[in-house]
Amino acid sequence: MSVMRFLGATSREAMRQVRDALGDDALILSNRRMDDGVEVVAVAEEAQSSLVEQAEDVAVPAQADAPSDAAPSAPGQDRLYAEMQAMRELLMSHIAETPRPRSARPGVRGVLRQRLITAGFSARLVREMLETLPDELVDVDADDPRLLAWSRRQLETRLEVLDDEATMLEGGGVFALVGPTGVGKTTTTAKFAARYVMRFGGDDVALVTTDDYRIGAHEQLRIYARLLGVDVHAVHHEDDLEGLLTRLEGKRMVIVDTVGMSQRDQRVTGQIARLGGASRPVRRLLLLNAASHGDTLEEVVETYQRASRDAGAPLYGCLLTKVDEAPRLGAALDVVMRHRLCLYYVSHGQRVPEDIRLAEAPALLDDALAVGQGSPFTFDDGVLTDMLRPTTSGQGLQALSRDLLAQRDQLARVMETLQRGVPGVVWLDAAWRRRESPRAIQQAWLEEHLAPPPMIKAWNDAEATGLFWPGGKPRGMDWAVPMLPQDANGDVLPLAWPLHRWPPSDTQRLTLARRHLGSHWHVFARVPDADVRQQLREADSPWLARTRVQQRVWYAGERLAIGELVDLAEPCGQHTCRLRGRARRVTLSRLPVTLAEADTATLQLWIATSHDPESGRQRGVYHWLGHGGDALEIDMRAFVYRQLEQDDLSRLMRAAWQQLGASAPLDCELRVYLAAQLASLALRMDLSEDGWAVDARPVVKRLAGERKRRSPDTLLQGLMHLLTAHAALSQAS
């Protein structure tokens, strides 16, 4: 039969059966949940036309050809006619409304295709890759790390880079840098020469310029040569280059800066041919502007490669310039891969010799694939399908416009909700808008907003009653975690204050927090020293500090590791907490201890053990030392539970720090400020059940991806998309 029924335990299993039996282009007629699983009814692509014809044949009433006294049709025939008529209408509506049938959720191929095209890679290269997708990856989740690893391997095998720079430089030769105007040939010539000078000195290097067109071109290269301590020569006539290269045979490395010419200039062929008549072979290195459109780069490579082959030898390799100006590297890398050019260096700024590095495939592909948001200039299957649907009187464009306006209004409402519900979001939004500004503007904003007077006022306005003390630099971060305020419930507030803007010692910081910020609670990433503990005790300030299982304390006259005291602790409560986006049942125990044998101040050792509420399996054990008084016992229990739920804060900051590093160049302080703000807001949004969080969470989660479950990591990604979209829409309006 053409129409087939499939039954699977889950929708994914049923759809896999459909693809195996009917192919990727099968049309889904129905999809419903049953007691024993999910039922899917589908028809193969090649059978759709014949099925429509059968439906049309059955649709003609039998009475049209029957005599007037013929018997009425049987009930079974009427039911068959009704079912076929309904099927016909369903098929015709599907075929008319969409260029090709597609399921509600894109498959792995569709997701991977969109991801690569969004990164800038061409549809041709993507199609070639997808044809070799292994069977074991066809049904995995789009976020499966194996899929990303496979994608990177496929791209890395196609990207040829220089393996041994030392051997290449030591071998020397004549290198001519060629390419269009404005691609950075003169600056790159100096950078290339500097790579040699730093290894072998400048005695065996000579620079040559053939640029007679640009005013000051010779002088610019002479300045670079003087700084590097190398010889420089200018060629004013076409016939002089061959003789000059003959005279420079004693130089191990000769680098020729050529005239920049558009790929559409008819003189390109002549210029390249001029480089081929020397007694020493000239190796042509093509410079490609990484910020150019893919079609432009394609045309440049084709023109210069053809001219180079006509001159006797293909291009020797290429260099990518202006990488710091390119929003996406996919197009440039795609062109290099498909034309099988060897990539030597990557240039990313104007400084000589700093802003050039050896091309490394893994790092370049990581940068290319790290693009998070789409582009209006890349193909999007969903938008294109909607625009191709047949409409009347331009209703399709009107509907699309209305949808975009609705999306803009929805994002604006979510931002207003966050700004009203959480102190510090206004500052986060303002800081986010400075990401792509020059460093001077970023630093000016930081100096204005993070000085003591505005920060003290902001913390007081937020009614912050607690303080989170960082524990230094998390692994993978260059800066220490900022100080963060906490409200009366122990929740962190996104009002980060970088640590270097505080007084240098912990005792001075504690004095500032008590006198000017009204901090009553204190949470430490590690146990504070004796002076700070004494200050806290004198001020009667409750505090809590994370500690390791190897930490040694005194109990019953013995100095023992905390891990040896777990069984001696007294159970004091049980609570359901939310840890890393999942519900956990937490059992809390406590034990009085001291840090020194002679201490008279007793501390409280808190031990929290989390279990999976469904399976009962233990998921983790957490330890704190803290305030030892009994007056705040009930509050301390609630406080411990809340700090347990926020134990992931440092990891979220590290994740935000890493993601921000893949975006526009950021001042380091602005980067750590944004990372702390984003992490604390994502964590607060995940834990809170207040109205602002309930209203904002669904939209923020959807921005991170419809298939992702709610978690602080998902909300962190969604917040980045929200801030980017809100800033862009605000600027456009």
TrEMBL record:
Keywords: Bacterial flagellum biogenesis, Bacterial flagellum protein export, Cell membrane, Cell projection, Cilium, Flagellum, GTP-binding, Membrane, Nucleotide-binding, Protein transport, Transport. Gene3D superfamilies: P-loop containing nucleotide triphosphate hydrolases. SMART domains: AAA (SM00382), SRP54 (SM00962). Belongs to the GTP-binding SRP family. Coiled coil: none annotated. It comes from the Bacteria. The keyword Transport applies. It is found in: Cell membrane. Necessary for flagellar biosynthesis. May be involved in translocation of the flagellum. It is a peripheral membrane protein. It comes from Chromohalobacter sarecensis. Residues 172-370 form the SRP54-type proteins GTP-binding domain. SUPFAM superfamilies: P-loop containing nucleoside triphosphate hydrolases (SSF52540). Residues 171-343 form the AAA+ ATPase domain. This is Flagellar biosynthesis protein FlhF.
